[in-house]
Amino acid sequence: MLSHDTRLFPQEWFIKTPEAMIRLSASVTMPGQVTLTIPETLEKHSYQAYPLYLKVLNEPGLSHTGQAIYFCHRQTDIRPRRHGEILILLSQSRLDSVVSKLKKRGFIVADKTALMADQRLLTIRGPNDAWAQTQLEILRKAFPDLIIDFNDYYPPAESVRLYARELMSWPDIGCIPNARNRVKIGIIDGLLDSSHPLLRARSINTERFVSSAAAETDHATNIAVLLAGDDKTKRLTGLISTAELYSAAVVETSEYGDMASVSAIIRALHWLNQRQVRLVNLSLAGKASNLVLAMALQYAKREGMLVFVAAGNHGLDQPAYPAAYDSVLAVTAVDSAGRLYAMANRGEHIDFAAPGVDIWTASGDYRSGTSYAVPHAVAITALLLQLNPTLSVDLVYESLRRLSKDLGATGFDKGFGWGLLQYPHQLCQ
Question: 16 in helix, strand or coil?
């Protein structure tokens, strides 16, 4: 049910899916309220936002209402996670003691993974979510000084007009093409198709962190091509063609759709850190904060890693995660006119904006979403690291702030952050 000025009837209502505009059935149930009915034939994806549009008859065009429709998997389960799994983050020095105590209490330690900063990630496994819900509180009381949380899922943050380079003032030929330092870029996403024609000539290291990875490869491949694609037509030439890519596949098919678990994300971060990859593209965004993931990202920042995260596509004035953590750099999306993406999350955590609306991709179509803004921000940062690989996280952030073109309200704001990132032409001098 939707509150709306029913005096504008007759009206037509639509939702926008990645494939088409879908017309909804509408009826006025009481003054000022409209009931919309979704076609049964529509393939619905849980936790995805579908922008809502309105057409008043006898008036041209559709108008975006500023609202969206969501389809939840179950009304009683609004936080997608791996069923029956709890994560514990602790130091190596406490590993044996804690594992011994867990076993005495009857807990099954299904996995012990080594991580950066001399940390270990324990996976406790039980029969179902109800068990995990009860045992989480028991474990937190038994080990109040440890970081303990569910193994939450985070979905990908997800439509020939080429405007992104121009919007960022990106030259046809870079001013530092002979940079001696080859930048390593990590992509934490779904499976990447390294055999794609635009990636065959590129250096790509791949690793899976899920036993049964989701079959869909479009998203990660599109991100990789935007960063380092080899396109002789110039339409999809990568922004950082000399980059060495490290692809960490963390997305698996679950009952909630394609999702990445906290444990997979953390293991991917550790793998990248071991290979001295400082610069990371992470296009995942969920609504739940997770203590274990937050702490792991803090460790990553202390190790000097620069993790760029999609702001989220929920269309809300509230945070998405992991973008809202202080340890990462949250990137929102703008269109060719510098306008904020209608479905982008807003909040004090937004750091920078980059092109992410109607981006032409290797899939052969236009895609929109904050996830497509992230590689543009990563590319700008790669230029800085080409010149000085030892730049600290704080100095990189300050450099990016100075490279941003102010949009929206003067100075920092919750929509655009510090503004639209620009190519560092001053470094060419």
Answer: strand
CB 170 within 8 A of CB 423: yes
* Closest alpha carbon to 418 in 345, 369, 350, 321: 350
Burial of 160 (0-12, 13-18, 19+ CB in 10 A): exposed
- Given a contact cutoff of 8 angstroms between Cβ atoms, the answer to whether 365 and 158 are in contact is no
Higher pLDDT, 413 or 45: 413
- Provide the token pair at 173: 């030929």
In three-state secondary structure terms, 122 is strand
**Average pLDDT value for residue range 319-334:** 96
Concatenating the DSSP letter of every residue in 365-421 gives SEE-SGGGTHHHHHHHHHHHHHH-TT--HHHHHHHHHHTEEP-SSSS-BTTTBT-EE
If we measure between CA atoms, which residue out of 215, 290, 218, 221 comes closest to residue 258? 215
Which of the residue ranges 181-195, 227-241, 385-399 would you say has the lowest mean pLDDT? 227-241
When pLDDT is averaged across residues 288-292 and rounded to a whole number, the result is: 95
SS3 label, residue 329: strand
* Mean pLDDT value of segment 19-45: 74
Instruction: Tell me which DSSP letter residue 32 carries.
Output: T
- Is this prediction's pTM over 0.90? no
59, 125 contact by CB (below 8 A): no
